[in-house]
Structures are given as structure tokens and as C-alpha cells.
Amino acid sequence: MEAHHIYFIIGAIVLCTAPVLLLVVAHLETTNNNGTKSKQMNFNATDIWRQLREENTQLASLSQLLRRAGLFKSDQQMRATVYTLVASTTLAVTGGAYAFSRNFEFSQLILSVLGSLLVMLLISYSLLKKVAEERQSKLESETLMLIQTTRMLWRVGLSLPKTLAIICDELSDLTPNCAKELNLAVNKIESGQSQEEALYELINSTSAEGFKEYLIVIRQQSITGGSIDKSLNELYSLLQNRRRLDLQETVNKLSGKMSLVMMVFLFPALLIFAAGPSFMSLTSALSGMGN
Q1: What is the mean pLDDT of residues 103-126?
Q2: How many Cα atoms within 13 Å fall on the side-chain side of residue 172?
Q3: Residues 237, 151 contacting (CB under 8 angstroms)
Q4: I want to staple 228 with a disulfide (CB 3.0 to 4.6 A). Which of 120, 132, 202, 221 is the partner?
């Protein structure tokens, strides 16, 4: 490797690590400053992210995916996006520097950098989608406990906001994901937003069918003012039947996989064990007749 190759690699590393260091320094400065200036900076950053989401549908879908993965605040979503882009760019430039050290052509160098960047972004998006799906499945599994607790608190005579507040405080260990989701609605209701609007926003931000149906039931109660005990009981039975069907489907798929494993591994071994002696005797008899 020649000297200018080494200089190029060092410059690429410095160029890629500089934005990360600047972001870290800026973040530390904003966290240390406890005044109106830091609040104004955070407010402006949040407004910029919201404006970008409103103008770009793809960025809005990305924000929705980040929201389902557990990043509720706009500053968390923006930091996660920026860090992912910086890390992907750094690895892509590092791959390009390695290709340059191998004396690749300029077109191949550009293709390697772009290809590495595209692959890293696709991997990051796939991981984010997987995390979001796992979290939504956890919401689905926690809904049964949430329904039963809501029914018990409702029978005591508590109001809907008080019921949701108690659930957020007392079920943070048993149903942590549902408690975090409901805590957002409780905070919006306490800040002055209506119950219908807060629950409607929560319904649109989740893809877990059971949890979404639970939110629809309690939102309907906040609109009509009727009882939700019967509706929650029917929803509980429906979710139990749905979970039973899912388990039956899983067992059926598992039995099919086990049948395939038996056909591939067990049947040949049984055939060798059962027909092996006969085949050896037949081979010996035929060889004796030939002699």
C-alpha cells in the first residue's frame, strides 16, 4: 500500500467520525444548558421533524415504524435516524477506502460505496421492522391482562382517566408495553386534550389488533358514556379464541415440519436397518451363483 492510499484512508475515517463527534458534543451541550435556549432548540428540532413528516410520506411511514418500535418522542426518532445514517455512511466510506486500497477502478469504487450504503440501510430498516413487529406482538399478548384489569377497576366505579392512570402505575411490570402506550394518552388527557382525540391518536399508531380493539372499546365508552364491562368480556373471549386458533395453527405447522424431518432422516435409517440384511444376503447369493 502506497503512502497516498494511507492518507486517503485516514482522511475518510476523520471525515466520517467528525459528524458523530459533533453530534455528541452538541447533545452534551444541550443537556447541560438548563435554560430557555435549550428548550427553544429542542422545540425547533421537534418542529423540523414534524414538518418533514408532514411533507414526505415515506418519512411519515418511517416515523410510524419508529413509533411502533418504541421511540415515542420526535427527538428520539430524529436522533435514531441521524445516527443510523451516519453509521451507514461511515461503513460505506470505509468499504470504499478498502476498495481504493485494492486499486479498484473509479466506477467500481463508486459502486462499492453506493452498494455498501444501500445494504446497510436495508439491514437497518429490516432490523427496525423486526423490532417493531416484536413489540406489537408483545402488545397483543399483554392485552388479555389489560382487559381483565380494566374490567375490575371499572366495576369498582372509577372513571376512565383514573382507570387508565392506575393501569399505567400498577401494571408497569406485568404489561410494560401497554402501560407505556396508555401513559401517552393519560398525559395528553391531563394536559387538556379530549379523551376521544387522545385515544384516536393511539389507535392509529398501533398495529396490534387486540390492543387496537381494546382502545376502540374504551374510546366508544368515552363518547357514549355507557358500560364497557360486557364489551370487554366479549373482546376477551374473542381474543382467547383467536389465540387458541393461532396455537392450533402453530401446532399443525410444527407437525408438518416434524413429518418432513422423519421422511428425510428416519425413514432412510429404518429402510437400511430393515432391508440391509436382506440386501446383503441377496448380494452374497448372487455373488455365489456367479462363482
Answers
A1: 81
A2: 7
A3: no
A4: 221
Residues 6+ apart with CB under 8 A from 143: 178, 208, 210, 211, 214, 239
Q: Which of 95, 128, 124 is nearest to 112 (CA)?
A: 95
d(CA 114, CA 118): 6
pTM: 0.69
The grid coordinates listed for 245 are 386458533
The overall average pLDDT reported for the chain is: 78
- Vertex 236, ends 235 and 237: CA angle to 5°? 90
Q: Do 239 and 147 form a contact (C-beta atoms < 8 A)? A: yes
What residue type is 214 in one-letter code?
A: Y
CA distance 201 to 198: 5
User: What Å distances lie between residue 285 and 169, 272, 281, CA to CA?
Assistant: 82, 19, 6
> What is the model's pLDDT at position 117?
81
pLDDT at position 108 is 75
63, three cell numbers: 416515523
Residue 205 main-chain phi, psi, to 5 deg? -95, 0
Give start and end residues of each alpha helix (H) in the chain. Answer: 3-32, 36-55, 57-68, 74-101, 106-156, 160-170, 176-190, 195-204, 209-224, 229-261, 267-290
What mean pLDDT comes out for the span 35-55?
56
pLDDT score recorded for residue 120 = 85
Average pLDDT value for residue range 191-210:
88
Residue 37 in this model has a pLDDT that exceeds 50:
no
